[in-house]
Amino acid sequence: ERRAMLRDTIFSPAFGNRPSCLVGREGVLKGLCEGLQTAPGRKERSTVLLGQRGSGKTVLLWELAERASELGFVVATPTIVSEGMLARIVEKIQDVGSRFVGDVAPRISGGSFGAFGFEVGLEFSRDVQETKSEQFKLTQLARKLSGQGRGILILVDELQANSVDVRELVSVYQELVGEGLDVALVMAGLPGAVSATLNDRVLTFLNRANKVTLGPLASLDVEAFYADAFERLGVGIAPEQISRATEATKGSPYLMQLVGHGLVLRANEGGLVSDEAFDEAIEAAGREFENDVCETTLAALSDMDANFLRAMVADGEQSTTAGVAERLGVTTDYAQKYRKRLIDAGVIESAGWGRIRICVPLLADYLRGER
Q1: Cβ atoms of 50 and 194 closer than 8 Å
Q2: 189 and 45 share a domain?
Q3: Is residue 21 part of a domain?
Q4: Residue 42 and residue 146 in one domain
Q5: What are the pLDDT digits (tens) for 253-262?
């Protein structure tokens, strides 16, 4: 088993890990990079990535960070929304941007620091560091780097609804854009957090932002990736098994990593995966996905949200809101409220006129107790 684990240099199934290969998101990345190359202030430079847990949001942000750096941007790598987030972003920009800015700021006559409040490079004077807000510091950094021909890209992960820190960041970002400075902002979060955030008056600009929804991966992309990965790792796996493994991923990037790693782990000395080992790998991947995604998703919902979902799974693949309302013994108007909440949370989606379905992989089976 240890031999097999050492051989797995492709799959990275730890939750939030950055895998060695990005599958099925090249079009999204290309669009984001093209947006960065538009003029400052364009809509494409303010992007919100929407996606369920396990849809690859964090991975995409890190990949974008790397590509934006290659384009010459000073990148504040993904910062998780938390208290003090703006200070972390300022520190990251100082750290990365310092290589592009020498101690060239003009000195104020009789003073000890430059026109922007910097002493050396992107290090602020003690007075600025101790008395000025993080918004002020971010503005000065943007002015100085824009003057050096350098754009700034700020990446934010796990966007939280109505966060004070997000309000502060978005407010100063709007000011920087208004000033014509070379800045861009990409934020990622669960659909529910973003939906609640959009109701905040301070963040109405996000309504005009470019929104990218990370849907399921295409089966052809997953199948091609598996075929190439297993060949490179020396795992002999039949085309029929690759097709079954692809189906088991349900289009989830995280489940794709779990299934792939499980299969490599269970290959025998000759690199072959028996039918029994194959079934074990799929089952183990499903259990881990349930622990990391299904249980976490349900834990964030109210009891009524969960009851709504349980009423849905009795219908099979699709449901109607009226049918769910009848099963729950509530009015259709009351059920509509929870339908909207669950759609905002990215747990269910519209399946055509008047119909809805659960869109978190394996969640329906989990709720039925079939797994």
Answers
A1: yes
A2: yes
A3: no
A4: yes
A5: 999 999 999 9
- Select from 156, 186, 213 the last residue of a domain: 213
More confident residue, 251 or 129: 251
Note whether 30 and 137 are same-domain residues: yes
pLDDT above 70 as % of the chain: 89
140 and 281 inside one domain: no
- Predicted local distance difference test score (pLDDT) of residue 10: 85
Burial of 200 (0-12, 13-18, 19+ CB in 10 A): middle
**Contacts by 337-344 with C-beta closer than 8 Å and gap 24+?**
338/304, 338/305, 338/308, 339/308, 341/192, 341/305, 342/301, 342/305, 342/308, 342/309, 343/191, 344/191, 344/192, 344/195, 344/196
Residue at 19 is within a domain: no
- Structural domain of residue 274, as residue ranges? 2-14+217-297
Name the domain count of the chain: 3
Do 141 and 288 sit in the same domain of this protein?
Answer: no
How is residue 354 written in tokens? 């008047």
66 or 353: which leads in pLDDT: 66
Q: Are 35 and 47 in contact (CB under 8 A)?
A: yes
Question: What's the pLDDT at 114?
Answer: 53
Q: Write out the two tokens for 243.
A: 């097709």
Last residue of a domain, one of 179, 195, 213: 213
Total-model pTM: 0.85
- CATH number of 59's domain: 3.40.50.300
Same domain assignment for residues 146 and 202 = yes
